[in-house]
């Protein structure tokens, strides 16, 4: 037993020594990136899928739990694959050119996005739309920072909020099919289900009655 413990300690020391080797840093960073992508994807998707599934999806408890697990796995897997691909391509480009340049990040991410997130499905669609909104804000701030557009004299956020909400509700009311299904469900719950009730039970306690009265 003592011999087994000693072997385990020796193995751990060897592993820790390997992790400290600078020549393996790029390869090890790719591996840890895969790990962090998987963990982060699961942390982000699991609570979101839990809430959305139980709020808006019908079916048995088993079916709902399966849907949550599948969505969490897909998000976790895709993010892990993307980080692995991105960091691997970044390391390869840096090694080939002898230095790291800004275009490396763009090219590596484009290839990773095509390979990992190129399939048009609900999970990938949500991730891309999430990123797109952040990109638009980021590019706007960068344009001001670089002097391409003048610094606003007043905070433009109220105008942005008004335009975003005005546009999305117009789309929901008149071109609903253009919106993502989960957004359609959320808006139907907020703006359509609130138009229907029969008595106090489905006015205050429940959204919809489940009996046949």
TrEMBL record:
* Transmembrane segment boundaries: none
Please name the Pfam families in this protein's record: Tim17
In which domain of life is the source organism classified?
Eukaryota
Q: Which GO terms describe its cellular component?
A: peroxisomal membrane
- List the protein's name: PXMP4 protein
Q: Report the gene name.
A: Pxmp4
